[in-house]
Write a structure and sequence with these properties.
Blueprint (H helix, E strand, L loop, with lengths): L32 H27 L18 H7 L4 H13 L3 H13 L3 H17 L7 H23 L3 H14 L6 H13 L6 H11 L3 H13 L3 H14 L6 H13 L4 H9 L7 H15 L2 H23 L4
Helix pairs in contact: 3-4, 3-5, 4-5, 5-6, 6-7, 7-8, 8-9, 9-10, 10-11, 11-12, 12-13, 13-14, 14-15
């Protein structure tokens, strides 16, 4: 911004004349210091009046309920507006939220941009989301190639800002990047990256990302220890499905946690409520054949039916033959 221009002086507001009188200017008689005083008082008074008038109008921009009328150019000159819209990161975030609610997207982006430049990770996130939202609103299959390329470039630009916010440790940004790379934005679809972003978000206490993160670490990365750690964290926050994974993964890594009683309770719930084959298998396998043979066979059969996994089905069939053999032995055993 040109600091010599007051923030309220938009282009065209002040008339400028460049014509000069061809006659030589008459010399102004020298004035004594006392004769200058009244003029100084008048100038000071005029400045005070202007400060009251324009200062009041600028203060109106600082509240939560901001409303403007007229076109963009009617408010401030663009250079002055960019510089004077807000004064620090917190103020810029506040203004960005207000402008976003009132639908003034240009102002919202400008305030978020300044917040981001001032080091606010939330500001970078808001800026990126605004850019993406506005680009998607203009997306149209009937547009020409250059227009579609422009929209694609803006989507990448917005995602770069959201990613910057995630790297800085802002949890919603990591969850948003997981959604974008998970397929919400088709040009960025990358399941492996989505799993990594879900993992980051879960570690930053975004509950909605924890189950996808656990599944990614378990099924794709085969990092059972990491999956177990994430499931333990999420189970501790009260998510029962995460507790099921916690119990299953404890068997995989041979951990003593969770305790046996909790483990059996969560494995049973994993089979009965969430229909997870591994939970059915482990609950059946860990059920004592002598104490509850029918329950053991029931859950092994359930694991086979849910998964069609050869391992589960062969064990269920083997258990069935063992129990049938026991029953036959009892039938032919002499009664004492």
């Amino acid at each position: 911004m040109n600091r010599k221009e007051p923030p309220y002086a938009a282009p065209g507001d002040l008339p400028v004349t460049v014509s000069r009188d061809p006659r030589p200017a008459a010399k102004e008689p020298a004035r004594s210091p006392s004769s200058r005083a009244p003029e100084a008082v008048k100038i000071g008074f005029a400045i005070a009046v202007l400060a009251i008038i324009f200062g009041g109008s600028l203060r109106n921009c600082e509240g939560d309920s901001v409303s403007y009328s007229g076109s963009y150019g009617d408010r401030y000159s663009e250079s002055a507006y960019d510089d004077e819209i807000c004064w620090n990161a917190a103020d810029c975030l506040k203004k960005a939220r207000v402008y976003s609610r009132t639908g003034e997207t240009a102002y919202a982006e400008t305030a978020a941009l300044k917040a981001c430049d001032l080091g606010s990770s939330e500001g970078c996130f808001m800026l990126g989301q605004d850019i993406i939202k506005n680009a998607l609103a203009e997306n149209d299959e009937d547009q020409g190639k250059s227009a579609r390329r422009s929209i694609r470039d803006r989507l990448w630009k917005g995602a770069a800002k959201v990613q910057e916010s995630c790297i800085a440790g802002y949890p919603p940004a990591c969850e948003a990047m997981a959604r974008y790379t998970g397929g919400e934005l088709s040009i960025m679809k990358n399941p492996a990256r989505a799993g990594q972003y879900h993992t980051q978000a879960c570690e930053l206490e975004v509950a909605s990302s924890c189950l996808p993160a656990i599944e990614f670490q378990w099924e794709q990365k085969k990092d059972y220890k990491k999956a177990w750690e994430l499931s333990k964290r999420h189970c501790g926050s009260g998510n029962q499905e995460a507790c099921v994974y916690y119990a299953i993964l404890a068997e995989n890594i041979q951990s003593q946690e969770p305790a046996l009683n909790d483990r059996r309770r969560w494995l049973r719930a994993g089979c009965d409520q969430y229909r997870i084959p591994g939970a059915c298998y482990l609950f059946g396998f860990r059920t004592d054949r002598d104490e509850a043979p029918e329950e053991r066979l029931k859950y092994l059969n359930e694991a086979c039916a849910l998964s069609k996994n050869d391992k589960y089905c062969s064990l269920a069939e083997k258990e069935k033959r063992i129990q049938e053999g026991r029953n036959d032995a009892r039938m032919i055993a002499p009664q004492g």
